[in-house]
Design a protein that fits this description.
Chain lengths: 554, 554
């Protein structure tokens, strides 16, 4: 549980001091206590530097249940770049309360490479996700209320496309029936909750450049279809203004500090398996204005966060990564190369490690295809042997990519200096970004291109429902939207148990959703839950607080 | 719509300056931007004054759809007491987002007597209500998850006593079925959402003296009954620690300022028709530590907020009001005395006004019964005539209570000086508080005493369900709990259309709920919704934001 690994001895600096270290003053901030602040949006216009900071995209191989330490490595890397005398800001997503109270634990790094104050960041932070929840749920209430009060838009209650949201792992709310009870004029209908970070409102918050665009995008959310099959948008219900109002503070990036008192911006939190999976573009742009190197974490492996960063974020914003970092652990490589049961993975030998390289090789190939130079970063664990490390290093050399050991967890910036040096070196040799698909490709084609080139699928199988939504997309004239693939993070395929580098598999697209506010098409592959559940022994059972307000893990 | 009446010309002072005016310094605060702050709880121990501030309880006659300006009067009164050279802090509840986006508009006063910054207070403020929502929903998810993972506590899914919460007016969530869908091991069952401010967690937050008590109370929430009819509490599910953790900041009172830059504390937001209806006791106690006069608003009329303040808050905490203020308007009095349709109420003549005195007389009687000295405050409107005003004054004189005109809306403190002087005068003549019922009275008896003495009911009719819960209460050995009456605010009875001073009515107790964490029994009288709905033309349709972040009312 990462939340307890917070180094209690770290003396936090006042957030105004952190702000000053990146050229901001107190007037640029809205303080949230002494250690958190929102940064005013006019900083985007006010601050000008010689050139914009370079974006370093941190990704990984397919994650395993152990956790690969991607956030820890990203934080350590940014601290190390600062240590080398450059300015660097790490930008991360805001942790969702659901997984924090569920199985995942914190999302604020670990050991000597953390963002702080960890508990506050992991809990309500500055309230952004709650604001997203409220904006989403206002829209949902507005739809049912519209039907209740006469339904002048002629909305078909069986064709409502949005769901209510909650920032909680609550499986019982996945599939529900609403509108029951006596004397109800409104519709009784099937509905369900998604976790707030999977909502389109969260994606919109993260893809908007300013309040005006935010409001416009919110207005463009496809809410429902009428009985005569016409699309109904949020703007038809006239609540997009109030939704934007609810997000007026949430749109401002949040400034915190790393365990070495460098600046970190944490803003927006779309999941990477079901949404586009990286922090807000406002946060990235602001960090570019204020530093030389922006270390951005994209969720999960190159097949998810990195692919979507390039094909959605870069395409829409012109923010191109200057280099990538692929985080690996020997444990995760062995896991991918192991054919036996997955306990005691560290006892696995060189064979498993060698076989596990297949997974890494695909991620390297993916990043190369997208035109990204990279460093493979081994997040080193105490029981990693020198021969294992040198095997990984020589594999990378054969692949023609850089390799560095990171001991950021134990040593902070000092443990990531080699990584930082190599990143800076390759970031100067940036190549042109290659999109996996083009705007004019039909959506079906876009999905196939991602599946075949990035996942290594043989082909794609679309369900009937998916095919009919593809038809609808053509009718709605939104074929130019990029696709946001929703897929398990554990495998390059849509089957979580297919580790390593699966081949000859068919990707199943079970459902396609239109996120016309976010401006992308979501393709749901395999069994992807948009509302997680709690395990039997979940984190909240162990979280406690003493009478003085200290967090306990019991 | 009160939100648009914010005087834009008011130049806000930095909240640290406001804090200094009541003897606090920056170290006592957690800033939330420049104009909001949380006050650290150790202020309760640290600050000592000669004597604790006197509590002035602001109540009203039964409200009408027009709004009586109780909050405006409370704010104006506190500003006026400051103007007279004493220290005064006004303490209010936090507005709920649901009604703000619904029909009610803001809850931050109006005209020249407001708490500021109004929009921030009305929106997410410092996130307290969102934290309450999260804590409540964690508990609900924990129950269904427990059943899903084997149900070792043997919980009967048909005997779950808690509901999920959302801070939104969403009628479609009142009655729902959850747990549907494929492959679900958990229970399919009826459920429903309450608005967050109606949740027991909100009541607990407002009735706890510190974090330790908060956690204990949360643990005592009655969650369900087992198949063998044993009570299951939140502590049996072991999530009360995490719930308290979620509330670690929410428990701290929020400091803002009035439109005359005096201190206001806004904390906790239980509805007064369905919960106990006043700000947190921590807020009141803290204000008592920091000022001479604490002006506390209790929701709705003396039959709701004031009755519950005395019989729940005073009983549990020893905070006794030193005096009461009863806010009236000529419009509201005429409304209560009018026999015709309720449009153009100002055209109604003296007859309606005279007849409306019956409603006021009952509230005066109620406050006297509870041992409270009072001033009747006429919240004056431009079309009030001198003869109307003098009629109200002479009525009050006949009743033996003080009367003052308040023009706080137009003139701020200057308009409430007479009211302030009279309040200060009578606050020195405090009598002993009389509880309406005693701890040892059976719950049934307690309900009857409130109904007969405070509402003027002839008798009480309990539904079958209510009677069986009364039986349960005896078995659980919690007969000593006070009762929290849930009733329409519009009438002294449980029928909103019975205006004036209804007589010979029977109060219907349809349902009784056990809030064993809050430590009271909720008696639901008549048709009381714990989840409001939106009207056809609700506030969110008119709320908007421009590109610079300014709130618009369109």
């Amino acid at each position: 549980m990462k939340t307890t690994s917070k180094p209690q001895e770290v003396k936090l600096k006042h957030i105004v001091e952190i702000a000053q270290s990146i050229g901001l003053d107190e007037d640029d901030l809205e303080l949230y206590g002494k250690y958190k602040a929102k940064i005013n949006l006019d900083v985007l216009e006010k601050k000008t530097r010689q050139s914009e900071g370079k974006v370093i995209l941190v990704t990984s191989i397919n994650p395993t249940p152990y956790g690969e330490g991607k956030t820890t490595t990203a934080i350590g890397l940014s601290m190390a770049i600062n240590r080398l005398g450059f300015k660097s800001i790490v930008t991360l997503r805001e942790p969702s309360l659901g997984p924090y109270l569920g199985i995942k634990g914190g999302a604020t790094g670990g050991g000597a490479s953390q963002v702080l104050p960890g508990t506050d960041i992991n809990l309500h932070f500055t309230g952004d996700i709650h604001a997203v929840t409220a904006a989403n749920n206002l829209l949902c209430a507005a739809v049912d209320n519209h039907i209740y009060h006469g339904n002048t838009l002629n909305i078909n209650p069986k064709a409502i496309m949005i769901k209510r949201a909650m920032d909680m792992n609550d499986r019982a709310l996945r599939n529900i029936v609403i509108g029951l009870g006596d004397g109800q004029k409104g519709a009784v209908r099937e509905d369900g909750f998604v976790i707030s970070v999977a909502s389109e409102v969260m994606a919109i918050l993260c893809l908007s450049n300013d309040l005006e665009e935010l409001k416009e995008r919110l207005g463009n959310i496809l809410v429902a279809f009428s009985y005569d099959k016409k699309p109904v948008y949020a703007k038809d219900l006239n609540v997009h203004g109030a939704m934007a109002l609810l997000l007026k503070d949430a749109i401002k990036p949040n400034l915190v500090q790393t365990s070495e008192a460098t600046a970190a911006i944490i803003h927006g939190g779309p999941f990477a398996n079901i949404a586009h999976g990286t922090n807000s573009i406002i946060a990235t742009k602001m960090a570019q204005k204020l530093s030389d190197y922006v270390v951005v974490e994209a969720g999960f492996g190159s097949d998810l966060g990195a692919e979507k960063f390039v094909n959605i974020v870069s395409r829409k914003t012109g923010i191109y990564p200057s280099a990538a970092v692929v985080v690996v652990t020997t444990r995760a490589l062995k896991y991918h190369g192991s054919s036996v049961a997955k306990t005691n993975i560290t006892d696995e030998g060189m064979d498993a490690l060698l076989k596990g390289f297949e997974n890494l090789s695909k991620h390297i190939e993916n990043l190369k295809m997208m035109g990204l130079e990279m460093v493979v970063a081994l997040n080193m664990f105490p029981d990693d042997t020198p021969s294992e490390i040198s095997m990984i290093e020589s594999f990378c050399r054969k692949q023609g990519v850089e390799f560095a050991v990171s001991r950021a967890y134990d040593l902070g910036s000092e443990g990531a200096l080699e990584l930082a040096e190599k990143v800076i070196e390759i970031a100067d040799k940036r190549r042109k970004i290659n999109f996996v698909y083009q705007d004019q490709d039909p959506v079906e084609e876009k999905i196939k291109k991602v599946a075949k080139t990035i996942y290594g699928a043989l082909d794609v199988q679309f369900s009937k429902s998916a095919l009919s939504t593809l038809e609808l997309i053509r009718k709605l004239n939104i074929e130019h939207f990029p696709v946001c693939m929703a897929k398990t993070q554990y495998s390059l395929s849509d089957h979580p148990e297919l580790l390593g580098r699966p081949k000859d598999f068919i990707l199943n697209v079970n459902e396609i959703r239109i996120n016309s506010g976010a401006g992308f098409i979501v393709a749901i592959c395999g069994n992807i839950m948009t509302m997680p559940g709690l395990s039997k022994d979940y984190a909240a059972l162990h979280l406690d607080i003493d009478k003085d307000g200290n967090v306990l893990w019991v």
